[in-house]
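Incident log entry.

Two folding requests arrived from the same account within the same minute. Monitoring flagged them as a possible duplicate submission, but the sequences differ. Recording both here for audit purposes.

Request one:
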Amino acid sequence: MERFQGIIGIVFILGIAFLFSNNRSKINYRLVFSGIGLQVLIGFLVFKVPPITWFFQRVGDAMGKLEAFARKGAAFVYGGIGVSQPDGSGLKDYAAGGFVFAFNVTATIILVCVLVAVLYHYGIMQRVVAVIARAMNYVMRVSGAEALSNVASAFVGQVEAQVMIRPYLSSMTKSEILASMSGSLACIAGGILVVYVNMGLQAGLHIAPFLITASLMAAPGALVISKIVFPETEESVTMGRVKMEVKSNYTNVIDAISHGAGDGFKIAMNVIAMLIGFIAFIALVDWILIHIGHIFNPNFNLSLDWIFGKLFMPMAWAMGVPQGDVQSVATLLGQKLTINEFVAFKSLTDKTVPVLSSKGIAIVTIAIAGFANFSSVGMQIGGIGELAPDRRADLAKLGLKALLCGTLASYMSASIAGMLI
């Protein structure tokens, strides 16, 4: 029965999107069904075709090794600092082992940003994105700009993806802008994805194939949902063509490494500051809620996790989560949407919110692997607004719709995966 619950999830998700549609008569059902078909195909290939499953497992192993390479740089900076060892053998020099979230995460993000900058400098990143975008453009008949933006979001950050379509931002239709924003919120940047892979490995969870699958499925999924919520009624200047500038902004490879390291450091510091702020604020809110709960019952420990666990239970069940994991998965879905995905992944990997079954772990990993949360909407409006100031009003109006679309796209990927696993 659990395998077929995913069908209920897909119908439920599409129903919500249809309910919020601003023009139901203009929905392009060819685009909708081709996009869902593409998601199913990606999931089937990754989970059911052994050579491709093996390939993505090896990619996951390679991502795990990036943390070891990043540690080489971090060990030079943090060497001499004593940290607890995983085997319980006490304190040792950080360079000799141990996992410190701030040290390891910053190092990994910086290394991945350096690699992306180098690939961008040599034009490799742009060509890979363009090839995949052309395929999506051919299958789904979406415009070149929104195809490029959605595919790029699987590799780079949510604002960086819009840089690749900067020449078109001012002339894009509102439907295209929503599709691009939704894709960036549904996907997850490569640097952050690698961090989550390593957080999973530290906890003994091999979630790399699920994370990679989530990122690949998110692009067509976001287009499907956004085109139901806001169907295209205008003429796109990039319909039927995918064109990208391959020119590098860097002087040479040393310049690319320098800029990549600098950008990675900014992202890493933002992640650390965000986690400290949010987790501290959650602790404050939980303290208040516990005292409110005790007014009605001395044994009732009311908390945000309890609230999320109740609110998101129907969605967790509909996605095909095993019954024993439904409340935990629902809690993680709530954390991801209202706080951020980093907090949700930290709760999953340090088992603060325990998910017991392998299927439950797979579904929730895919469902929370995206940037769709309230703070990211603000970052998008500000970041894309800087690239195209004349569209800032449209961005602000479409922000919450993009959050809805990005969230539903991730849930749909998780529902499809739940039926295949």
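Request two (distinct sequence, not a duplicate):
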Amino acid sequence: MKGILLAGGSGTRLHPMTLATSKQLLPVYDKPMIYYPLSTLMLAGIRDIMIISTPDDLPQFQRLLGDGAQYGVRFSYRAQPSPDGIAQAFLIAEDWLAGAPCALALGDNLIFADHLSVLLQGAARRDSGATVFAYQVRDPERYGVVTFDAEGRASTLVEKPTHPVSHWAVTGLYFYDARVSTFARQIRPSPRGELEITDLNRIYLEEGSLQVEKLGRGCAWLDAGVPDALLQAGMFVQTIQSRQGMLVGSPAEVAFRMGFIDCDQLREIARSVFKTELGRQLQDMAGPAEPPAPLPIPA
């Protein structure tokens, strides 16, 4: 399975902060925003990832992330000239996907759960269909909204409804089979001129192959695309890291836990940020370096 990280858009809801930089490069506590969805894709076991952003911002992501070798993964980069909808990502990346199944993560979404890797790897192992994740919110009119029937199966999907009949929002994380680019070509622009991800999900729903996983009380989902949510996301990460001593949204930690890199490679990353608390935690995780072997004593 391949992964797409969509980090485009103009970030107008975060102006003036995003007049000079991409919103996905803004800090969420101690890490760039893009680190969080990147870590999510890596937790699913995905090691081949394409970052899609605007032509102006793409060089900044390349400078930040490089080719991925430091994390034991491979990054590719593509430009999205104009923000014409989330589903457009599958057209931009169609030749790169080459018929492979894929996961798409939005660059301003943060998902945290103790059992998240189990959920993600389960979705990645599905042979066919699509899997999305739903989360209860107070303001469903901002999102794609899903309703469920009496048996708990998804029954309808509506994009940003004026009068929502459900508080279950579809999060910015999607898993699709190899047909996704073909289905994306069938979508027509919505009244706001975008290729809506909800329309793509509805194709899978109507053929009965859409699986919706509910994220319950033990999970947190934050869409950091507005100032209040950006602040809340930073405070959430700060609270978890300072109170529990565990990292949130660290690609280096995930790479190490998933076996993509070894202790020496993790120490190298830690040295690159050695003046920070993040660097100290990564160094502690890697453990002390092995002392050099003693020189042989001449006879």
